[in-house]
Each structure stands twice: as C-alpha cells, then as structure tokens.
Design a protein that fits this description.
Strand order of the largest sheet of chain B: 6-7-8-3-9-10
Structural class of chain B: alpha/beta
CATH class of the largest domain in chain B: Alpha Beta
Number of strands of chain B: 14
Distance between the termini of chain B: 34 Å
Oligomer: heterodimer
Structural class of chain A: mainly alpha
Number of domains of chain B: 2
Helix content of chain A: over 70%
Largest interface: A-B, 30 and 38 residues
Low-confidence stretches of chain B: none
Number of strands of chain A: 0
CATH topology of the largest domain in chain B: Rossmann fold
CATH superfamily of the largest domain in chain B: P-loop containing nucleotide triphosphate hydrolases
Shape of chain B: elongated
CATH architecture of the largest domain in chain B: 3-Layer(aba) Sandwich
Strand content of chain B: 25-35%
C-alpha cells in the first residue's frame, strides 16, 4: 500500500500540471486579501467570495485536477499495468490512490478555502469553520467522483470539467430543481446548521436538510468508490497489435 | 513447471473478431507467438496475462483461472508492449517499488538481482525518462523478473532493440527457459522467433494458423506455391514454353503480363532464364507477386 501511495504522490506532484495545485490556491488567497481591503473585513463579502468563487468554482476544479491526476494518466499511457500485474487486491490499489487524492484535496483545496475565509473577513472563525466543513465534505465527494470517472472513462477530464463548471457552478447555483441534486448544496447543509442564526445574514443557504445532504453525500462517495473498485478489477488492458 | 492452457478462446470487440477460436497449450521452454501486425497477438497475450476476459473459451494457469485473479502474478512476469513507465523515478527506485508491490521479503536484493540480469545496474540511478528505448525495454524486462516468476509473457520484446541488445535478450530468454521456466514472446519477424523458440505458434487474422517447431514452420512457409509476375517481349510464347518445360504449375496470360504459379520455386527460378533463351523471348521484368509476410501468413490460414 505504501509503495502505491509513494508512486501516486510522485505522479501527482511530478507533473507540470501540479503547478496549478499551488497557483490556484495562491490566487484565491490574493483575492481574499483584496476582498478584505475593499470591504474592510465584512463577513458578508467574505462569505460571498468563499461560497461563490472558492467553494463554487475553485474547489471542483482543484478536485478535478487531483482526482483525474492520481490514476487517470497511468491508465491512459498503460503504465498502470505495473501496479495491476501484482498479487495485490485491486481494491487496495484504488483505495491507496483515492487516499492520496483525498489528502491532497485537504492540503491544496480545503485548507486554502479556510484560510481565504479567515483572511477575507470572519467573526470568531465561525465562517471559516462552517466553510471548512462544507468544503471538506464537498471535496471528498468531488475527488472520489473524479477518481471513479478516471477509471470508468478515458474522457474523465472533459466530463468532469463539464460537470464541475456547468452542473455544479452554473446550474447548481441558479436552477432550483438542479440545486437539490448538487454536491455543493448537500455539503452546505451542515455548514448552514453550524452557523445557526448567522447563516441567513451571511448567505450560507442549502437547498436540502442536513440529514438529506449527509446521506446523499455518503451514498455518492460509497457508490463511486465501489464502482471504481469494480471497474479496476475488470480493467481491460490491451494494445492494438 | 507451469502451463498456460487456452481452450477455444475467442475475443471480439463489437463486431470485430480479434481472436478466433484459438486453442494453445504453452508449457516450459520458449514459445514464439508469430504473426503479422494486427493478427491478435497482443489480445492473446492480454488474455493470458489476465488483463482481458475471453469472449468465449477459457484461459487457465496450471488449472486455475487467470481472469480476475491477481494471485497469478506471483507466478507470471509480464513485459507489456507500451513503453510508458513511471518516468519520474530512477530505474533502481522503480525496480524496488515493483519488488515491494510483490511483497518480497528482501526487496532490495531482488531489485539488484533483476537489474544485474538485464545488465542495467550502472544506469539505474538515473530517472527512467532519460533512458533510451532499448534501456527502457531492459528495465521492463527486469520488472518482470524481479519476483523470479516461473512464467514470462513478453509482448514484442525485441522492438526497438539494437543487434547487441537483441542478442543479450535472446541469451537471457534461452537461459530462463533452460531453468525450466515457461517463456512466451510475440513477434512479427520469423527469423527472430526461429532463432530461440522451441515451439512456434502462428497467428494470422485472429486464427491459430500453424503450430510446431521452426523446421516445420519454415517448411510450411517455403513449400507453398509461389506467384511471379513476368513481362517479356512475347508473353504468349513464353507461357507456352514454360508449360511445355514443366517449370510452372499454372500460367495466366493477362493484360501486358504473365502470372505464373509454381510449387517448386527453386526449379522455376533455374528454369526460367533457360526456357526464355531457348524460346527467343526477352525477359523484361520478373517479380515475386506475393513475398510479403502477410501473404505468406495468408497462405497458412487458407491452407
């Protein structure tokens, strides 16, 4: 397991696109600084930056980069064969890679979002904690889904991008029917509950209740993981000869 | 002693048949899987290596299934065809990782032994990205050997190797086979296969076209009817003379050329200039019509 983790970490951080994993969070922190300066630390402005750009756009993109980076490139170029041709349960391989993806999600996405909320303006770190919880839950769901997508299809990046940008960001933000089936809304439910009376004032609102949000997230994460393991167990590896 | 048995194995993708009802038993020693490009060799090796389920038929390793059974990789060493590896690590780190993934007790020693076997100890502290094609091929070979497997499956292992590396690998495979291992490799070059393979399995267009030792395969390939296309100053006269001399089995006079068929090309090649001179016909062009490897294989299938 540790060997798979080691190779995955090197693969994820060793590629050029891993620069984006640093550049995007830095961009968010710069925006947070500007927001604080422009709105003089207003919590509502901070909540709008964190809930809109940070959680709505940056988080799914970061998870897409990470989720499609931990296993997809190896399947594309065929080098996954060196992991698969070993007396290891495929489940172990997938879970190790997913684990790397989830830790990377916390480091490169969840922590920067929390920092940005704290920098842009907060009241006793309430907003930071609420969005920390929401982005952690959403990040786990996004990354797991994107890892599963990379095992299921060679077009994971395109499909993931369309899903992240169109479904989660645009439609999930505005179209009421879709809002209820959006990872973002599910993850916001516990954040809304955590903020209590402040939630409405700061615009942290979810379209679903806490139990519904949490159970849907759980179903999604477990389902995506199960599907990815199943698919990796029967992954076809053949070159055209 | 490990044996891979394929029984009536077929594999299709949509409505394209890649492997068609193949039954082969691969035992200890070197087996060469010979066939032109696109014959289904990689598909067959993928199925033997547990990376593809047969559409029908069964593939077993010493009686056990290979599909969805990662335990087979304790016995099988695999040299895949794609060149991609974990480019950012060094050869040594990659071998060590492979040894650890196998759960070997002394992974360091196993990695070193495998690097020695392929003569890659010295460049092994450089990243794989800096290796030449031949060096990558040897590292791939080392990863397949790291757990001392009793079966080796190699997909086009000689591709991209220079003559010296080719000889080195041939020696290595011969040595591994002499230790009682089961070695199977694919190639589209007969000379490569017949040099080291005790048994040759010929695959053409997904079908198992022939099987045997290299003498038998060689004979099948040279004793087939040969086709020649000839243009001359007087095609009809030459055709008559060739038939009269018994140098050809069949002659067709076509538009501006003769198509000649012979089952004994040695006799034909010697007789042709003599027959032409005696008949007073000038030969303008003589060319074998079907000397491509594909047509040789196609003959074996049609036979």
């Amino acid at each position: 397991m540790s060997t798979v983790v080691g190779l995955t970490v090197r693969g994820l951080l060793g590629r050029r696109r891993s620069l984006l994993l640093v550049v995007l969070p830095v961009l968010l922190l710069v925006l947070a600084g500007l927001t604080r300066w422009a709105s003089e630390g207003s919590v509502a402005a901070s909540a709008s930056l964190t809930g809109g750009f940070a959680m709505g756009t940056l988080l799914p993109l970061m998870c897409l980069l990470i989720g499609t980076g931990v296993i997809g490139p190896e399947i594309d170029d065929g080098s996954i064969v060196y992991l698969l041709a070993k007396p290891l349960p495929r489940r172990t391989i997938l879970l190790a890679k997913l684990g790397v993806g989830l830790v990377a999600t916390v480091v490169f996405a969840v922590l920067p979002v929390m920092a940005s909320a704290a920098i842009a303006g907060d009241e006793g770190l309430k907003l930071t904690a609420a969005y920390g919880l929401a982005t952690l839950l959403a990040g786990i769901a996004y990354t797991t889904v994107f890892v599963a997508l990379s095992v299921l299809t060679r077009n994971a990046v395109i499909i993931g991008l369309l899903y992240a940008l169109l479904w989660e960001t645009v439609l999930g933000g505005f179209v009421p029917g879709i809002r209820a089936v959006s990872v973002r809304q599910w993850a916001l439910a516990p954040a809304e509950a955590l903020l209590g009376d402040n939630a409405k004032a700061w615009g942290v609102e979810s379209a679903v209740s806490v139990p519904v949000g949490l159970s849907l997230l759980a179903v999604l994460v477990v389902g995506a993981t199960w599907l990815a393991i199943r698919r990796l167990q029967t992954l076809r590896l053949v070159t055209a000869d | 002693m490990t044996t891979i048995v394929l029984e009536s194995v077929s594999r299709w993708y949509g409505n394209v048949v890649a492997v068609n009802d193949v039954s082969i038993t691969v035992g200890p020693g070197i087996t060469g899987l010979l066939g032109p490009n696109g014959a289904g060799k990689s598909t067959l090796i993928s199925m033997m290596g547990g990376f593809l389920a047969p559409s029908t038929g069964t593939v077993t390793l010493d009686g056990g299934p290979v599909w969805r059974n990662p335990e087979i990789y304790r016995t099988i060493g695999l040299v895949p065809e794609p060149e991609a590896m974990y480019d950012m690590v060094t050869g040594q780190q990659f071998l060590l990782a492979n040894a650890r993934l196998h759960g070997l007790a002394d992974a360091g020693a196993a990695a070193r032994r495998a690097l020695e076997a392929v003569d890659m100890v010295e460049p092994s502290d450089r990243p794989i990205a800096t290796y030449s094609k031949g060096m990558k091929q040897r590292i791939k070979m080392a990863t397949a050997l790291v757990h001392d497997p009793s079966v080796l499956l190699l997909d086009e292992p000689f591709n991209g190797m220079d003559p010296r590396q080719r000889l080195h690998l041939m020696d290595l495979l011969t040595r591994l086979a002499s230790e009682g291992r089961t070695v199977l490799f694919s190639s589209h070059i007969l000379e490569e296969v017949e040099q080291i393979a005790g048994t040759i399995e010929v695959l053409v267009a997904g079908r198992h076209a022939a099987s045997g030792d290299y003498r038998r395969i060689r004979r099948l390939m040279t004793e087939r009817p040969h086709q020649y296309t000839i243009t001359s100053s007087d095609d009809r006269r030459l055709a008559g003379a060739l038939v009269a001399a018994g140098a050809a089995d069949g002659v067709t006079v076509g538009a501006g050329a003769l198509a000649v068929q012979t089952s004994d090309w040695g006799r034909f090649v010697h007789a042709l200039p003599r027959v032409a001179r005696e008949a007073g016909v000038r030969l303008l062009e003589v060319s074998p019509a079907d000397e491509s490897l594909e047509s040789v294989f196609a003959y074996l299938v049609a036979r």
